[in-house]
Amino acid sequence: MPIQGPLAALGPLRLSETDRETLQREVAGLPSEIATDDIESRLFDLTALRMQLALVEADENAFEPHRKRVVEIAMLLEEKATIPAVAAQLEYLAGLQESAFWEGISLAGLEELRLRLRGLVPFLDKKSRTIVYTDFKDEVLGVRDGEAVSIPKMTGAQYEKKVNDYLRQHLDHLVIRRLRTNQPLTAMDLKGLETTLVEIGEEDGETLLSALLARSESPSLAHFVRGLVGLDRTAAQAAFSRFLNDRSLTPQQIRFVEMVIDQLTARGVMDASALYEPPFSSLHAGGPDELFAGRENVIDAVFQTLASLEPRIRDTAG
After folding, report:
1. I need a labelling partner for 247 at 20 to 30 A (CA). Which of 38, 76, 208, 276 fits?
2. 261-296 pLDDT tens trace
3. pLDDT of 177-228, one tens digit each?
4. DSSP secondary structure letter of residue 7
5. What angle do CA 294, 295, 299 make, to 5 degrees?
6. d(Cα 42, Cα 65) in Å, to the nearest integer?
């Protein structure tokens, strides 16, 4: 098509090699006006597409890894509730973490999921984005006509959240209350609590609970639960009352005891070695030994009291 208008007077346009290099260097790299999505959003699109394909092919082995990834993304997004776009989807995010959400899930349901979440995944912290970037290698295991995808299993992260929520919402549960108030448990108490936590994990409860305890590095289930629910402040104050009421102690020494109570209230359990670390070391660089110099009997008694607050199992034999 011949050039028309004012440019026609210039004659045919011929670019020299130098002109081409200049255009390539200065112009070709300029951004276009067409907005592009964040890479996280596009990768989430890919995850949703793979789930849709797996659903069509009734391939549970391909579907499940992606579903677990989506559930973990939803859990992480819940921590971003201060972001308006995330806050608007909180109810949906909570719902998709339940097994009922996935029962009978359709292609339309997966498409809605994609549209709701694709714009939110860029809000994840950088250290959490590996969940979005992780690429599960697809394996063709064959198509099974008419076979529905079964209700998916619970993820470890999902189970941990459910356990944490249950324990914090049932502080008046008999066994949990005993742990919080430093009352000894019976083996039956502990077994009952274990059964409850296993039931939260449904068919994989035992495996999920074992894995959770291993990750927490807690020496026992009682220690794990106490670590989550903390020690009742009144119980902690009662245990250390002799020190709080000791008028021979200095204000700094009293403050040390109060900090022990604060930590036990928040953490539930605490090893004696923690007394040599922050925040305790901020009171005296030499640690409790120097802080209580000349009062070794006092610091020894503090250590003994701390040990007495470890969760205990009462022997009911006989």
Report:
1. 276
2. 999 999 999 998 999 999 998 888 888 999 999 999
3. 999 999 999 999 999 999 999 999 888 899 999 999 998 899 999 999 999 9
4. G
5. 135
6. 18
Q: How far apart are CA 203 and CA 172, in angstroms?
A: 27
Percentage with pLDDT > 70 across the chain: 80
Element holding 226 (H helix, E strand): helix 221-229
DSSP single-letter state for residue 2: -
Helix or strand holding residue 186 (H, E): strand 185-186
286 CB contacts (<8 Å, ≥6 apart)?
Answer: 293
- 8 Å CB contact between 63 and 80: no
Please state, in angstroms and as integers, the Cα–Cα distance from residue 38 to each residue in 50, 85, 118, 132, 254, following that order. 19, 16, 9, 12, 54
Average pLDDT, the chain: 83
Phi and psi, residue 313, nearest 5°: -110, 120
Instruction: Work out the pLDDT band at 3, boundaries 50, 70, 90.
Output: very low
Helix axes 156-169, 205-216, angle to 10 degrees: 80
